[in-house]
Amino acid sequence: MTQPSLRHAGINLGGTQEDPNADAESGIFGFWMFLMSDAVIFALLFAIYGTAVAATAGGPTPRSEFKLDSALIETLLLLTSSLTVGMGVLAMKYDATRRPVFAWMGVTLALGIAFLFMEWHDFSTMFSHGAYPTRSAFLSSFFALVPLHGLHVLAGCIWMLVMGAQVLAYGFDTRVKINILRLSLFWHFLDVIWIAILTVVYLQGHVS
Amino acid sequence: MQTAHSPIWPGVLGRFTWHDLPFVRAWENPTASEMIGAAAASLVIIGFVVTVTLLTRHRAWGRLLEWVTSLDHKKIGIMYVVIALVMLSRALVEAVLMRMQQAAAVGDPGFLSSDHFSQLFSTHGSIMIFFMAMPFLTGVINYVMPLQIGARDMAFPWANSVALSLTGGGAILMMVSLVIGKFSTGGWSGYPPYTGLAFSPDVGPDYWIWAVTLGSIGSTLSGINIACTIFKFRAPGMTYMRMPLFCWTSLCTSILMIFAMPPLTVATALLALDRYLGFHFFTNDLGGNMMNYANLFWLFGHPEVYILILPAFGIYSEVVSTFSSKELYGYVSLVLATMAIAVLSFTVWLHHFFTMGQSANINAVFGIATMTIGVPTGVKIYDWIWTMFRGEVRFTVPMLYSLAFMITFVIGGFTGIILAIPPLDYVFHNTLFLVAHFHNMLIPGLLYGLLAGYTYWFPKAFGFRLNERWGRIAFGCWVAGFYLAFMPLYVLGASGMARRTHEIFQPDFRPWLYVAGFGALVLLAALAALIVQLVVSIRERDANRVFAGDPWDGRGLEWSTSAPPPEYNFAVIPHVDGRDPFYDGKRKDGYYQRHVAYGAIEMPRNSISGVVIGLGATAASFGLVWHMWWLAGLSMQLVLSALIARSFVRGSHRTISAAEVTATEHRWHAALDADRPTPRACELSQRNTGLAEIPA
Amino acid sequence: MSTRGTRLVAGVVAVLALSGCGALDHGILNAQGPVAQHERDLLLTVSGILLFVWVPVVILVPLIAWHYRRTNSAHAYRPKWDFSWPLEALIWIPPAGIVILLAFMLWPATHKDDPYTRLAGRGAPVHVQAIAMDWKWVFIYPDEGIATVNQLAVPTGRPVHMDLTSGTVMQSLLLPQLAGQIYAMAGMRTRLNFAADRPGQFLGENVQFNGDKFAHQKFTINSMAPGAYAAWLARAHKGDRMLDGAAWARLSRKDTTGPQIFSAVPRGFFERVVAATGGAAHPHPNAKHQPATRKAN
């Protein structure tokens, strides 16, 4: 039986075995579909936010609550982490030694955690103004959209720790490589969502 | 926030009270309605106890575990269908109860309390959509599609098992709601603000939210899995335009699942935030807006209609072609029509609420978009008609379902176009006319199709044919019952009778309600006939074996294996060079080629983690429903741990040795050599051992 | 079948057919106002057109299936025949043509029968504000300063302009013989226009499920000749029941009630109900005098 030789572009799994490359092909493809499904969830939450942004019910407004400076720092943290996670994947592809991969992933993890701290700080500042999600439809939709992104980042951080443990346990076997590539796709996806949040939530809140 | 606490250990039992047990309610207030509720709860408990006893008596726990932990797409498919049939029985009995109540309740309160009646229509709808139709079609796709494309399994066998467990968990939650507490009264669509905390503070809507959420997450996973399998795991030579039509409709359905399930998840999640944390998405106060819910729900709900119907369309395409002994007419046009329906299904959701007060322009645009879907659907019907044209039609049970479908479905299309016209929708919306319409689409368009598929592929899955006579009786009852039960509803709807009505004050409606009630009983008889058919067929199984695997002179690759197929499906992955590879192949010499030796095959090992995740999610949902926070927290931790633990598992495959494969294949080939080919005239007799005679 | 059996079946069918007509008399086929009449005519026209879709399938499916049955040797068997351009044109073009035809009918009809479209009046319009409650309807006549519960009196022939909102969950007001239906939603206002052509009593009902006594939430629309309507108004004014806070609290209880009349209603009562339930978002952009804004509360 002759099969077209599949080699996944993102990871170097070696050219001789056929199965691992096929696994990578379908595994990564399936993960893309999951991301698209997840993107629909965010798209809908953006739409809900759009319809609810004016429904402040006399409570806090976007202008009174959103701080552009911290949003800017959060953006920089996430964008930098996207670069470092990409470097990590490249290191895995070409070096396949632990140290550079751990270094890049460690930086990414640190940036992710820093982002989460910043975000938590933002939320607690809002709470201190009485800007709770129970106050108005606007705040409800904000606290459904932005913390969901935060939860994704948290999930990404946990995932990164799990992958670290797996690298220690198994080295760079096929499944570890595929999962690290998926993780990096997930991380880039979160960046894209964050850019949309920055634009639709934070910037729009100050423009309008 | 809700502050009702249980008087009994509130920290442990949350808001549970003794009154949440139907037995206690029936004891204190022995009305017919409460008695029926207690009887239903007893049935669930007795069913559970009997199952446990039988499993223990027959020492079958090991085999059960072997099944539920299996990652084999065939076993998973069968388990989905079992869930669907169990839930079908419950939801059909509920439908009969509702029709009896309405027939009895003309100018009279009837025998069911209003609250009980409302729970019945809510569970009936939720079960039929999420725990009958969805598992049934997912199961059939799971079983058949990999065999048709010449694959050994799904792309993600483990995710398949997780999806099954989540769907099963949702179904368990539905059953538990019969025994502990009550279900939502807000209908299958769960519209807030009625289902919000302010108007329904009880556990009912929470049961609905979590059962549906489990089902929808499971379906999203299934969708990804099915689509990825079709995109990446087709046998060499199986190009897109050579795929059996069932694979095309499965592909479109799975893509719809990937994009249409998230809106449902968002809708239920936001409703849960409203109910649990006091958010204001759909409340009446502080800026909440229930119109967002209507949009979210139907953004899922309309594509869902096609998620349900497209696989049945695929089954009809297979069945009509096979039992006409003829190539499918207009393959390309059927593929295009399927794709068109899938795309258009995202552009029409607003027709579910023409009456919400948006402008006439918007209504008109969505009305026209809705009618447009009628075109590809009509094309499909004609494609099947022209498939029979110049064929040799055999009136087997699956074919009878297909014929009944074509005639009946067009009536539903007729009334569908009427409802698509906004001024007419203003009159018929929310009346029994609408109820009649969507049952007219879903019973022929989904149930007949899945029953046709069940009868058609059953011999493949279990190795013996189903009893034909009882199949015909069931068919007759399903069709007669449908007409008797739903044609009167068109009349009642056109007379202004609202749906979900517990009591009727118009005596003129009585005769029609009687007819509809009688029709419901006929449908119940159809279900009984289906069960009898299964029992009789299992008893007679040895006489009806079709081990050779091809009882119907089939066309696709699924018929080219033994029945039931070996775990690995294909010892050698087939090469495909046409649209009906098996039909054309077996007409050439030497198709059933015996190899001297076969290679070893790797298949996924069983895994317990899918079940753990499913049951953990179910327990977490139960905890959330009853505000047993400890249970919810622990169960979610369990789910997370199982997920992480699974990612550490290596060696998740086992190797089926070359010797074992060779022995299996040689056994099958020996049977093939011994079999006498069956001419089509004898295919319903015991002579049919699954080797088709090739006419000269 | 025996003669007696036949007679019994015939009798049952006859009874059903007769009472069937009785049932249909309560619906759109027995339309009693201009909106409903137009909708009924549209229904009949569309059904006529759709027969061209339905009849061929109902004839062709059994005919072809039976003629090409396996046991009939007197037909051509072409197992490889699977395509024909003329047939393809035949199955795509006529359905598309029918849909295009229906689309051209749908657009003007949707505008004409839009619940928001004011009727060309025969006489001055009557303004009514409907508030959906659990499980009753409250109708305010703002021009008259009176209100009714579970009954609606309208002068025969004159157009009725109804604004709707809900004091509770979403409901839907259906007038089967007079007009279609429109949702009533808390914090929002929707609109329904209709008229009754002749005096008589017609049904109005909520058709969106809203709890226990949903089935009871029906009322009578009394279409009265001008003189009788004037007399009814005069009687209504004479009473001494005010729709005050206490009365509203009673109406807000989840329960059913018989018909009631309030002889006085505070000004702006309806608007306050809309505002009190949160929004004042308006789903319909065409209704210009109701700006689509969100009011805070």
From TrEMBL, chain A:
Keywords, alphabetical: Cell membrane, Membrane, Transmembrane, Transmembrane helix
UniProt-recorded Gene Ontology molecular function terms: cytochrome-c oxidase activity
InterPro entries cross-referenced by the UniProt entry: Cyt_c/ubiquinol_Oxase_su3 (IPR024791), Cyt_c_oxidase-like_su3 (IPR000298), Cyt_c_oxidase_su3-like_sf (IPR035973), Cyt_c_oxidase_su3_a-hlx (IPR013833)
Gene Ontology CC, one term: plasma membrane
Functional description taken from the UniProt entry: Cytochrome bo(3) ubiquinol terminal oxidase is the component of the aerobic respiratory chain of E.coli that predominates when cells are grown at high aeration. Has proton pump activity across the membrane in addition to electron transfer, pumping 2 protons/electron.
Sequence similarity: Belongs to the cytochrome c oxidase subunit 3 family.
Protein name: Cytochrome bo(3) ubiquinol oxidase subunit 3
TrEMBL record, chain B:
Molecular function terms, GO-annotated: cytochrome bo3 ubiquinol oxidase activity; cytochrome-c oxidase activity; heme binding; metal ion binding
Classification via Gene3D superfamilies: Cytochrome c oxidase-like, subunit I domain
Every Cytochrome oxidase subunit I profile domain range: 67-577
Topology with respect to the bilayer: Multi-pass membrane protein
Pfam families (alphabetical): COX1
UniProt keyword terms in alphabetical order: Cell membrane, Copper, Electron transport, Heme, Iron, Membrane, Metal-binding, Oxidoreductase, Respiratory chain, Transmembrane, Transmembrane helix, Transport
Main location: membrane
Compartments, as annotated in UniProt: Cell membrane
Entry superkingdom: Bacteria
Main enzyme class: oxidoreductase
GO biological process, one term: electron transport coupled proton transport
GO CC terms of this entry: plasma membrane
TM regions (residue ranges): 35-56, 77-100, 120-144, 156-180, 207-233, 245-273, 293-316, 328-350, 362-379, 400-421, 441-458, 470-492, 512-536, 608-626
EC number: 1.10.3.10
Classification via InterPro entries: Cyt_c_oxase-like_su1_dom, Cyt_c_oxase-like_su1_sf, Cyt_C_Oxase_1, Cyt_c_Oxase_su1_BS
Family indicated by similarity: Belongs to the heme-copper respiratory oxidase family.
Name assigned to this protein: Cytochrome bo(3) ubiquinol oxidase subunit 1
Automatic annotation (TrEMBL), chain C:
Taxonomy, superkingdom: Bacteria
Major localisation: membrane
Record membrane topology: Multi-pass membrane protein
GO MF term (any one): oxidoreductase activity
Transmembrane segments: 42-68, 89-109
Keywords of the record: Cell membrane, Electron transport, Membrane, Oxidoreductase, Respiratory chain, Signal, Transmembrane, Transmembrane helix, Transport
Keyword Transmembrane helix: yes
GO biological process: ATP synthesis coupled electron transport
Membrane in keyword set: yes
InterPro entries: CcO_II, CcO_II-like_C, Cupredoxin, CuRO_UO_II, Cyt_c_oxidase_su2_TM_dom, Cyt_c_oxidase_su2_TM_sf
Cytochrome oxidase subunit II transmembrane region profile domain residues: 20-117
Domain Cytochrome oxidase subunit II copper A binding span(s) in chain numbering: 123-235
Gene3D superfamilies reported in the protein's UniProt record: 1.10.287.90, Cupredoxins - blue copper proteins
Gene Ontology CC terms: plasma membrane
Protein localization: Cell membrane
Entry similarity comment: Belongs to the cytochrome c oxidase subunit 2 family.
Protein name: Cytochrome bo(3) ubiquinol oxidase subunit 2
